Amino acid sequence: MLVKRYSILALALVLLFAGGLVGCGGGKKTTTVKIGEVTRSVFYAPQYVALEKGFFKEEGLDVELQTTAGGDKTMTALLSGAIDVALVGAETSIYVYQQGAEDPVINFAQLTQTDGTFLVSRDEAGGFDWADLKDSIFLGQRKGGMPQMAGEFTLRKHGIDPQGDLELIQNIEFANIAAAFASGTGQYVQLFEPQASIFEREGKGHVVASFGTESGRLPYTVFMTKQSYINKNKETVQKFTNAIHKAQLWVQEHTPEETAVTIAPYFKDTDQDIIVSAVKRYLEQGSYAESPVLEEEAWDNLLDIMESAGELKARVEPAKVVDNGFAESAVRIKP
Protein backbone atom coordinates (compact mmCIF):
# COMPACT_ATOMS: atom_id res chain seq x y z
CA MET A 1 0.00 0.00 0.00
CA LEU A 2 2.86 2.32 0.94
CA VAL A 3 4.71 1.45 -2.28
CA LYS A 4 1.61 2.23 -4.32
CA ARG A 5 1.22 5.59 -2.56
CA TYR A 6 4.86 6.50 -3.35
CA SER A 7 4.34 5.45 -6.99
CA ILE A 8 1.34 7.75 -7.33
CA LEU A 9 3.28 10.60 -5.70
CA ALA A 10 6.24 10.04 -8.03
CA LEU A 11 3.93 10.06 -11.09
CA ALA A 12 2.32 13.29 -9.91
CA LEU A 13 5.73 14.93 -9.52
CA VAL A 14 6.76 13.83 -13.03
CA LEU A 15 3.59 15.29 -14.54
CA LEU A 16 4.00 18.51 -12.58
CA PHE A 17 7.60 18.83 -13.73
CA ALA A 18 6.68 18.16 -17.36
CA GLY A 19 3.92 20.76 -17.16
CA GLY A 20 6.42 23.22 -15.73
CA LEU A 21 8.73 22.66 -18.69
CA VAL A 22 5.92 23.44 -21.16
CA GLY A 23 5.01 26.59 -19.28
CA CYS A 24 8.64 27.74 -19.13
CA GLY A 25 9.41 27.39 -22.82
CA GLY A 26 8.05 24.17 -24.28
CA GLY A 27 4.91 26.03 -25.37
CA LYS A 28 5.75 29.23 -27.30
CA LYS A 29 3.47 32.15 -26.50
CA THR A 30 1.61 33.49 -29.53
CA THR A 31 0.05 36.90 -30.13
CA THR A 32 -3.20 37.21 -32.05
CA VAL A 33 -3.40 39.83 -34.80
CA LYS A 34 -6.66 40.50 -36.66
CA ILE A 35 -6.29 41.66 -40.28
CA GLY A 36 -9.03 43.21 -42.39
CA GLU A 37 -8.27 43.07 -46.14
CA VAL A 38 -10.13 45.47 -48.40
CA THR A 39 -10.92 42.70 -50.90
CA ARG A 40 -9.93 39.11 -51.70
CA SER A 41 -7.57 39.20 -54.66
CA VAL A 42 -4.55 37.45 -56.17
CA PHE A 43 -3.16 40.99 -55.97
CA TYR A 44 -2.40 40.20 -52.31
CA ALA A 45 -0.59 36.92 -52.99
CA PRO A 46 2.33 37.61 -50.58
CA GLN A 47 -0.09 37.98 -47.69
CA TYR A 48 -1.60 34.55 -48.36
CA VAL A 49 1.88 33.08 -48.79
CA ALA A 50 2.85 34.43 -45.35
CA LEU A 51 -0.19 32.65 -43.91
CA GLU A 52 0.17 29.37 -45.78
CA LYS A 53 3.95 29.03 -45.39
CA GLY A 54 3.73 29.69 -41.67
CA PHE A 55 5.84 32.86 -41.75
CA PHE A 56 3.55 34.58 -39.23
CA LYS A 57 3.64 31.54 -36.96
CA GLU A 58 7.43 31.47 -37.10
CA GLU A 59 7.30 34.98 -35.64
CA GLY A 60 4.95 33.86 -32.86
CA LEU A 61 1.86 35.43 -34.40
CA ASP A 62 -1.59 33.92 -34.77
CA VAL A 63 -3.08 35.94 -37.65
CA GLU A 64 -6.83 36.00 -38.21
CA LEU A 65 -7.84 37.23 -41.67
CA GLN A 66 -11.21 38.64 -42.70
CA THR A 67 -12.34 40.43 -45.86
CA THR A 68 -13.91 43.82 -45.15
CA ALA A 69 -15.11 44.74 -48.65
CA GLY A 70 -14.34 48.38 -49.50
CA GLY A 71 -11.90 50.96 -48.19
CA ASP A 72 -14.50 52.79 -46.12
CA LYS A 73 -15.64 49.61 -44.35
CA THR A 74 -12.07 48.49 -43.74
CA MET A 75 -11.09 51.80 -42.19
CA THR A 76 -14.23 51.81 -40.03
CA ALA A 77 -13.30 48.36 -38.74
CA LEU A 78 -9.78 49.56 -37.90
CA LEU A 79 -10.86 52.76 -36.15
CA SER A 80 -13.52 50.92 -34.14
CA GLY A 81 -11.05 48.27 -32.96
CA ALA A 82 -12.77 45.39 -34.76
CA ILE A 83 -9.42 44.65 -36.44
CA ASP A 84 -5.83 45.40 -35.44
CA VAL A 85 -4.31 45.88 -38.89
CA ALA A 86 -5.88 46.97 -42.18
CA LEU A 87 -4.69 46.02 -45.65
CA VAL A 88 -6.05 48.88 -47.73
CA GLY A 89 -5.02 51.78 -49.94
CA ALA A 90 -2.63 54.33 -48.41
CA GLU A 91 -5.05 57.11 -49.33
CA THR A 92 -7.37 56.04 -46.50
CA SER A 93 -4.72 56.98 -43.91
CA ILE A 94 -4.51 60.42 -45.51
CA TYR A 95 -8.29 60.87 -45.26
CA VAL A 96 -8.13 60.07 -41.54
CA TYR A 97 -5.25 62.51 -41.10
CA GLN A 98 -7.11 65.25 -43.01
CA GLN A 99 -9.99 64.90 -40.54
CA GLY A 100 -7.64 65.80 -37.70
CA ALA A 101 -7.61 62.42 -35.98
CA GLU A 102 -6.00 62.41 -32.53
CA ASP A 103 -4.95 58.78 -33.08
CA PRO A 104 -3.68 58.80 -36.70
CA VAL A 105 -3.49 55.71 -38.87
CA ILE A 106 0.10 54.80 -39.72
CA ASN A 107 1.33 52.92 -42.81
CA PHE A 108 4.09 50.51 -41.77
CA ALA A 109 4.48 47.91 -44.54
CA GLN A 110 3.77 48.16 -48.26
CA LEU A 111 2.40 45.07 -50.00
CA THR A 112 1.69 46.24 -53.56
CA GLN A 113 3.32 49.05 -55.52
CA THR A 114 1.07 49.59 -58.55
CA ASP A 115 -2.62 49.79 -59.23
CA GLY A 116 -4.05 46.28 -59.38
CA THR A 117 -6.97 46.83 -61.74
CA PHE A 118 -7.31 46.10 -65.44
CA LEU A 119 -9.53 47.74 -68.01
CA VAL A 120 -12.02 45.15 -69.21
CA SER A 121 -14.06 45.70 -72.36
CA ARG A 122 -17.34 43.94 -73.00
CA ASP A 123 -16.46 43.62 -76.67
CA GLU A 124 -13.23 42.13 -77.95
CA ALA A 125 -11.13 44.99 -79.26
CA GLY A 126 -8.92 44.21 -82.24
CA GLY A 127 -6.70 47.24 -81.68
CA PHE A 128 -7.66 49.05 -78.49
CA ASP A 129 -7.20 52.80 -78.24
CA TRP A 130 -7.98 54.86 -75.15
CA ALA A 131 -10.06 57.15 -77.36
CA ASP A 132 -12.50 54.23 -77.70
CA LEU A 133 -13.76 55.07 -74.20
CA LYS A 134 -15.21 58.40 -75.30
CA ASP A 135 -19.03 58.36 -75.26
CA SER A 136 -18.98 54.91 -73.65
CA ILE A 137 -20.58 53.71 -70.40
CA PHE A 138 -17.84 53.12 -67.84
CA LEU A 139 -18.54 51.12 -64.69
CA GLY A 140 -16.17 52.76 -62.22
CA GLN A 141 -15.13 52.25 -58.62
CA ARG A 142 -16.04 54.13 -55.43
CA LYS A 143 -15.38 57.89 -55.53
CA GLY A 144 -12.26 58.74 -53.54
CA GLY A 145 -10.98 55.15 -53.60
CA MET A 146 -7.57 54.42 -55.07
CA PRO A 147 -8.84 52.31 -58.01
CA GLN A 148 -11.15 55.11 -59.14
CA MET A 149 -8.56 57.86 -58.65
CA ALA A 150 -5.85 55.93 -60.50
CA GLY A 151 -8.38 55.14 -63.22
CA GLU A 152 -9.36 58.79 -63.67
CA PHE A 153 -5.69 59.83 -63.59
CA THR A 154 -4.98 57.42 -66.44
CA LEU A 155 -7.98 58.61 -68.46
CA ARG A 156 -6.89 62.25 -68.14
CA LYS A 157 -3.38 61.26 -69.21
CA HIS A 158 -4.92 59.98 -72.43
CA GLY A 159 -6.97 63.13 -72.99
CA ILE A 160 -10.27 61.81 -71.65
CA ASP A 161 -12.39 63.78 -69.18
CA PRO A 162 -13.90 61.14 -66.85
CA GLN A 163 -16.88 63.35 -66.02
CA GLY A 164 -17.48 64.85 -69.46
CA ASP A 165 -16.37 62.40 -72.14
CA LEU A 166 -18.13 59.27 -70.91
CA GLU A 167 -20.99 58.10 -68.71
CA LEU A 168 -19.36 57.21 -65.40
CA ILE A 169 -21.32 54.91 -63.08
CA GLN A 170 -20.16 55.03 -59.44
CA ASN A 171 -23.22 54.11 -57.39
CA ILE A 172 -22.58 50.35 -57.20
CA GLU A 173 -21.07 48.75 -54.08
CA PHE A 174 -17.46 47.63 -54.52
CA ALA A 175 -18.35 43.98 -53.88
CA ASN A 176 -21.08 44.06 -56.57
CA ILE A 177 -19.22 45.73 -59.45
CA ALA A 178 -18.20 42.51 -61.22
CA ALA A 179 -21.74 41.09 -60.94
CA ALA A 180 -23.20 44.33 -62.31
CA PHE A 181 -20.94 44.17 -65.37
CA ALA A 182 -21.73 40.50 -65.89
CA SER A 183 -25.45 41.31 -65.86
CA GLY A 184 -25.05 43.89 -68.62
CA THR A 185 -24.19 47.20 -66.94
CA GLY A 186 -21.51 49.23 -68.72
CA GLN A 187 -19.28 48.74 -71.74
CA TYR A 188 -16.03 49.01 -69.76
CA VAL A 189 -15.12 48.18 -66.16
CA GLN A 190 -12.10 48.20 -63.83
CA LEU A 191 -11.48 44.78 -62.29
CA PHE A 192 -8.90 43.13 -60.06
CA GLU A 193 -7.56 39.63 -60.62
CA PRO A 194 -8.65 36.89 -60.66
CA GLN A 195 -12.01 38.38 -61.74
CA ALA A 196 -10.57 39.88 -64.92
CA SER A 197 -9.17 36.51 -66.05
CA ILE A 198 -12.38 34.72 -65.07
CA PHE A 199 -14.41 37.06 -67.27
CA GLU A 200 -12.02 36.44 -70.17
CA ARG A 201 -12.39 32.67 -69.71
CA GLU A 202 -16.20 32.97 -69.62
CA GLY A 203 -16.33 35.33 -72.60
CA LYS A 204 -17.92 38.10 -70.52
CA GLY A 205 -15.11 40.58 -71.10
CA HIS A 206 -11.62 41.14 -72.45
CA VAL A 207 -8.62 42.77 -70.75
CA VAL A 208 -7.48 45.61 -73.01
CA ALA A 209 -5.21 47.65 -70.70
CA SER A 210 -3.59 47.76 -67.27
CA PHE A 211 -4.09 50.69 -64.92
CA GLY A 212 -1.08 49.42 -62.97
CA THR A 213 1.18 49.95 -65.96
CA GLU A 214 -0.41 53.29 -66.80
CA SER A 215 -0.44 54.99 -63.39
CA GLY A 216 3.12 54.16 -62.26
CA ARG A 217 4.60 53.27 -58.84
CA LEU A 218 2.25 53.81 -55.89
CA PRO A 219 1.98 52.66 -52.27
CA TYR A 220 -1.24 51.12 -53.52
CA THR A 221 -2.04 48.60 -50.79
CA VAL A 222 -0.40 48.94 -47.41
CA PHE A 223 -0.62 47.36 -43.97
CA MET A 224 -1.58 50.07 -41.52
CA THR A 225 -2.71 50.43 -37.94
CA LYS A 226 -3.46 53.12 -35.37
CA GLN A 227 -0.57 54.96 -33.74
CA SER A 228 -1.84 53.84 -30.34
CA TYR A 229 -1.57 50.18 -31.43
CA ILE A 230 2.01 50.69 -32.57
CA ASN A 231 2.92 52.40 -29.29
CA LYS A 232 1.66 49.40 -27.31
CA ASN A 233 2.72 46.61 -29.69
CA LYS A 234 6.02 47.56 -31.35
CA GLU A 235 7.43 44.03 -31.13
CA THR A 236 4.27 42.58 -32.70
CA VAL A 237 4.34 45.10 -35.57
CA GLN A 238 8.00 44.26 -36.21
CA LYS A 239 7.33 40.53 -36.26
CA PHE A 240 4.37 41.07 -38.59
CA THR A 241 6.53 43.08 -40.99
CA ASN A 242 9.29 40.47 -40.88
CA ALA A 243 6.81 37.79 -41.98
CA ILE A 244 5.46 39.95 -44.80
CA HIS A 245 8.94 40.68 -46.16
CA LYS A 246 9.83 36.99 -46.05
CA ALA A 247 6.69 36.29 -48.11
CA GLN A 248 7.52 39.08 -50.57
CA LEU A 249 10.91 37.51 -51.24
CA TRP A 250 9.34 34.05 -51.52
CA VAL A 251 6.96 35.21 -54.27
CA GLN A 252 9.82 36.81 -56.21
CA GLU A 253 11.96 33.66 -55.94
CA HIS A 254 9.29 31.13 -56.93
CA THR A 255 7.38 30.50 -60.12
CA PRO A 256 3.81 31.74 -60.67
CA GLU A 257 2.76 28.10 -60.63
CA GLU A 258 4.28 27.55 -57.18
CA THR A 259 2.68 30.73 -55.84
CA ALA A 260 -0.67 29.73 -57.33
CA VAL A 261 -0.58 26.34 -55.60
CA THR A 262 0.30 28.00 -52.28
CA ILE A 263 -2.51 30.58 -52.35
CA ALA A 264 -5.14 28.28 -53.89
CA PRO A 265 -6.94 27.69 -50.51
CA TYR A 266 -7.98 31.37 -50.60
CA PHE A 267 -9.55 30.98 -54.05
CA LYS A 268 -11.40 27.68 -53.76
CA ASP A 269 -13.88 28.51 -56.53
CA THR A 270 -11.17 29.58 -58.99
CA ASP A 271 -9.43 27.23 -61.44
CA GLN A 272 -5.70 26.81 -60.92
CA ASP A 273 -4.75 28.07 -64.38
CA ILE A 274 -6.69 31.29 -63.73
CA ILE A 275 -4.72 31.89 -60.53
CA VAL A 276 -1.45 31.23 -62.39
CA SER A 277 -2.46 33.69 -65.12
CA ALA A 278 -3.31 36.37 -62.55
CA VAL A 279 -0.03 35.92 -60.64
CA LYS A 280 1.91 36.18 -63.92
CA ARG A 281 0.16 39.42 -64.83
CA TYR A 282 0.98 41.02 -61.50
CA LEU A 283 4.59 39.81 -61.57
CA GLU A 284 5.15 41.03 -65.12
CA GLN A 285 4.00 44.56 -64.31
CA GLY A 286 5.86 44.65 -60.99
CA SER A 287 2.76 44.95 -58.80
CA TYR A 288 4.10 42.89 -55.90
CA ALA A 289 6.44 45.04 -53.79
CA GLU A 290 9.78 43.36 -53.17
CA SER A 291 10.27 45.45 -50.03
CA PRO A 292 7.78 46.65 -47.40
CA VAL A 293 9.44 50.11 -47.40
CA LEU A 294 7.26 52.93 -48.78
CA GLU A 295 9.28 54.94 -51.30
CA GLU A 296 9.06 58.74 -51.22
CA GLU A 297 8.81 59.02 -55.01
CA ALA A 298 5.86 56.61 -55.05
CA TRP A 299 4.26 58.59 -52.20
CA ASP A 300 4.55 61.79 -54.24
CA ASN A 301 2.86 60.04 -57.16
CA LEU A 302 0.01 59.03 -54.84
CA LEU A 303 -0.43 62.66 -53.77
CA ASP A 304 -0.41 63.79 -57.42
CA ILE A 305 -3.20 61.33 -58.23
CA MET A 306 -5.26 62.39 -55.20
CA GLU A 307 -4.77 66.06 -56.13
CA SER A 308 -5.88 65.35 -59.68
CA ALA A 309 -9.05 63.72 -58.30
CA GLY A 310 -9.76 66.72 -56.03
CA GLU A 311 -9.50 64.56 -52.89
CA LEU A 312 -6.46 66.18 -51.26
CA LYS A 313 -6.85 69.23 -48.99
CA ALA A 314 -3.08 69.71 -48.74
CA ARG A 315 -0.03 67.59 -49.54
CA VAL A 316 0.83 65.34 -46.58
CA GLU A 317 4.44 64.64 -45.73
CA PRO A 318 5.15 60.88 -45.42
CA ALA A 319 6.43 61.37 -41.85
CA LYS A 320 2.90 62.29 -40.77
CA VAL A 321 1.35 58.91 -41.62
CA VAL A 322 4.24 56.60 -42.55
CA ASP A 323 6.63 54.74 -40.26
CA ASN A 324 9.26 52.95 -42.34
CA GLY A 325 11.27 51.86 -39.31
CA PHE A 326 9.70 48.41 -39.08
CA ALA A 327 10.07 47.79 -42.83
CA GLU A 328 13.70 48.93 -42.88
CA SER A 329 14.50 46.63 -39.95
CA ALA A 330 12.78 43.70 -41.70
CA VAL A 331 14.81 44.27 -44.87
CA ARG A 332 18.06 44.17 -42.87
CA ILE A 333 17.23 40.70 -41.54
CA LYS A 334 18.86 37.97 -43.63
CA PRO A 335 16.24 35.39 -44.71
From TrEMBL:
<keyword id="KW-0732">Signal</keyword>
<dbReference type="GO" id="GO:0042597">
    <property type="term" value="C:periplasmic space"/>
</dbReference>
<protein>
    <submittedName>
        <fullName>NitT/TauT family transport system substrate-binding protein</fullName>
    </submittedName>
</protein>
<dbReference type="Pfam" id="PF13379">
    <property type="entry name" value="NMT1_2"/>
</dbReference>
<comment type="similarity">
    <text>Belongs to the bacterial solute-binding protein SsuA/TauA family.</text>
</comment>
